[in-house]
Design goal:
This protein has 591 residues and is an alpha/beta fold. It contains 23 helices and eight strands. The strands form two sheets. The chain has a six-stranded mixed sheet. Strands 2-5 form a two-stranded antiparallel sheet. It is a multi-pass membrane protein.
């Protein structure tokens, strides 16, 4: 009975995986999206607890962000000690194990089909907690995205899902992490599609939406349904403010370009020892922590004060510029901290400062400082990440005010254009990838091939056979009517030939025996008979069509046999794929 249940479970699992190989497995992807959201929501709760619990007990003020109330000596030594500790930790790790954050997720998606290791998740968890708790200029959203993507990927790997499904799970984890961090499920979905995946697909939206919703529910059970910031009712007083909003967009666009340039410039020292770079980053943080303690940690208390109009002009401008400088220097030097939180901080303070100037110039028409602080948040996020739609959705969900949509669209798109077109800056994440000598393939063809596994198009009508057969064995092999014969050699399959060629050879041999009276051959050598043989190379069952094309190019094979590990040292062959199959599939889908 137990064996029967196991067989049924294995069969259902095999059917589930097979359906996931295609691009239209919406019911299966929806289930995976829900699971990803629940797992990510639980991980983010643990991550936030690991940050907030020590800060609430260590910091003198109320809450977990009152670094300003520490004495000067502690403010100066805390980030330096944290930087040294992180430097020593990362110094002991191999270079590939040190990589964390959203840039690392994009690298794994582009070069490794979204496979992320548990070790990477542990390193990100420790590094993310340490950067915030030690008072670095850091955010928790970037590490949260890494953790959500990593645990979703690990779930897919544990279930041995096709690679196209693991890529979707990574996107689900990213969306769920943003949703859980800000309580903004729509922004999480758009962020995953626009920033990380860089594609929009109908099949992709469904599981990612479900992941974002389920993660938001998990965190709302703990923290309530309020968004990350308590925002007063905001509205634009007059259309006469539009020129000033455009002027602020230009200023924010320039600031975003300067920030990206600073990170890029400092990132060129990535070949230096990591301990040296993080020690320098810690030393640079010391004067900022002493003079401008608002730059320490996440800084959402300062953002809330800016939104509520409780800060003066010089303080807003000073902390905004200081945050830009120290965050750019730190991240460029390799500090494993998130960038989304600092981006929101910079945008809110600089936008609030510009709002106060506008109030002096146009006292009767100007809107509240909080209105401009919120616009600045969206503009800076959109310009730095080059993700205007994600920034707009975040702005709308954080304010829960439809009146901000029109000015938000205007300032976000304008600032993004200033950064990208006037200064030629790409997204911060793409800039860092390029600095590391990497790229991100986002062409429509590549994206289409990544969405489908070889299991969806492989020809399963194959028979694996030895090279030499007796005529009787050859006829017996053809009785199952396979389309292809996969010929085994000493080290695995060596060639592929149409079964019809063997049938033709046997028929011709039989005619020769009947007409000429010659003896029938004792053995049939499948590598010697006249046949349209193809050289073969292996490809894993989980591989996407993009990986299959890469296997064709690297091996110069004419066909790929699809295999999977079923036991130690045992590979099972499931089918074969020709390059023409991939081309036909893409042409069919495109038409």
């Amino acid at each position: 009975m137990r064996n029967f249940r196991r067989q049924i479970t294995e069969q259902l699992t095999a059917v589930f995986r097979r359906r996931l190989s295609g691009v239209d497995a919406l019911p299966q992807l929806a289930v995976l999206g829900l699971l990803s959201g629940v797992v990510t929501g639980a991980v983010i709760l643990l991550f936030r607890f690991a940050i907030e619990w020590p800060l609430e007990h260590f910091l003198p003020g109320a809450g977990s962000e009152s670094f300003e109330e520490l004495d000067i000596l502690t403010r100066g030594l805390l980030p330096l000690a944290g930087a040294l500790g992180l430097g020593l930790l990362l110094h002991r790790l191999a270079i590939h194990d040190r990589k964390v954050g959203i840039v690392h997720i994009m690298e794994r998606l582009n070069y490794h089909q979204g496979y992320i290791s548990f070790k990477s998740a542990v390193v990100q968890f420790v590094a993310g907690v340490t950067t915030v708790v030690s008072g670095q200029s850091a955010g928790r959203e970037g590490p949260a995205v890494h953790l959500g993507a990593a645990f979703s990927s690990l779930m897919g790997q544990w279930m041995r899902l096709p690679n196209n499904s693991i890529r979707t799970l990574v996107a689900c984890g990213c969306a769920a992490a943003i949703s859980a961090s800000f309580n903004t499920p729509i922004a999480g979905v758009i962020f995953a599609m626009e920033v990380v995946m860089m594609e929009y697909t109908i099949a992709g939206f469904t599981p990612i939406i479900l992941a974002a919703v389920s993660a938001a529910i998990i965190t709302q059970l703990m923290y309530g349904s309020e968004p990350a910031f308590s925002v007063p009712a905001l509205t634009m007083n007059s259309l006469a403010e539009i020129p000033w909003i455009l002027a602020i967009a230009v200023i924010i666009g320039i600031a975003a370009a300067a920030f990206i340039h600073l990170v890029d410039s400092m990132g060129r020292h990535h070949h230096r020892p990591v301990l040296l770079r993080l020690t320098i980053a810690g030393l640079l943080m010391v004067p900022f922590a002493i003079v401008v303690p608002e730059t320490m940690g996440i800084g959402y208390d300062t953002v809330s004060d800016a939104i509520n109009g409780e800060l003066g002009f010089w303080l807003l401008l000073g902390v905004g510029v200081a945050k830009l400088l120290i965050t750019g220097l730190s991240i460029g030097l390799g500090m494993p901290s998130g960038v989304i939180g600092p981006t929101i901080f910079m945008g809110a303070t600089l936008g609030g400062a510009m709002g106060l100037i506008g109030a002096q110039i146009f006292p009767e028409q100007a809107s509240s400082v909080g209105f401009y602080a919120m616009l600045g948040m969206g503009a800076m996020m959109g310009a730095v990440l080059q993700a205007p739609l994600a920034a707009l959705m975040a702005l709308m969900e954080l304010t829960r005010n439809p009146n901000i949509i029109l000015p938000g669209m205007l300032i976000i798109t304008t600032s993004s254009l200033v950064t990208s077109e006037a200064f030629g800056k790409k997204s911060l994440f793409l800039t860092v990838l390029k600095n590391q000598g990497l790229s991100y393939q986002s062409s429509p063809v590549i994206q289409a091939l990544r969405r489908v596994s070889v299991g969806a198009i492989m020809d399963r009508s194959i028979l694996r056979t030895e090279r030499e057969l007796t005529p009787e064995e050859a006829r017996k092999a053809l009785k199952s009517e396979p389309k292809w014969l996969l010929v085994d050699g000493s080290n695995g399959p060596t060639a592929l030939l149409p079964a019809v060629d063997l049938a033709r050879f046997l028929e011709d041999s039989a005619k020769q025996v009947a007409e000429e009276g010659i003896d029938a051959p004792e053995t049939v050598d499948l590598m010697d008979i006249p046949a349209n043989r193809r050289d073969v190379a292996p490809v894993q069952y989980q591989a996407t069509l993009e990986e299959a094309l890469n296997a064709f190019d690297s091996s110069q094979a004419e066909a790929l046999y699809v295999q999977r590990h079923v036991a130690p040292m045992i590979q099972r062959v499931y089918g074969v794929v020709l390059k023409s199959d991939i081309e036909s599939y893409y042409q069919y889908r495109r038409s």
